[in-house]
Write a structure and sequence with these properties.
- The chain starts with 27 loop residues before the first helix and ends with a helix.
- The relative contact order is 0.20.
- It has 3 helices and no strands.
- Helix content is 41%, strand content 0%.
- The chain is mainly alpha-helical.
- The radius of gyration is 14 Å and the shape is elongated.
């Protein structure tokens, strides 16, 4: 099953649009802000298993994939749909970094 990205969300006028060259550290604040909607007062660490916390339900993974695609302007391919890519903040950040680097590399070769 292919999951396509949702329409881009409206950005605040002062919010910067990411570019493929941004570093890993730049993705974590957005990831954590999105996850905070589901975790209330619980502060996730970079390596805490999101799914083991008991705060999320079965629809959460779809929301997470759509967020990642829309926020970082990437496509999550079928091969990327593994729990290991989404179970921690660090894993999500690494996936975004890999996908954005691939987009940047492809753009340089075209």
């Amino acid at each position: 099953m292919r999951i396509s990205s949702s329409p881009s969300r409206t950005r605040h006028p002062n919010e910067k649009k990411e570019t493929p060259a941004m570093t890993t550290a730049d993705h974590k604040p957005q990831i954590l802000a999105f996850l905070a909607q589901f975790f209330g007062e619980h502060r996730l660490t970079d390596d805490e298993d999101i799914f083991a916390t008991g705060f999320v339900n079965s629809l959460f993974i779809m929301q997470l994939v759509l967020f990642v695609e829309g926020e970082f302007d990437i496509t999550v391919d079928d091969d990327d749909l593994e729990m290991a890519n989404f179970n921690t903040v660090r894993a999500i950040d690494a996936l975004v970094t890999r996908k954005r680097a691939a987009v940047g590399a492809a753009a340089q070769h075209s």
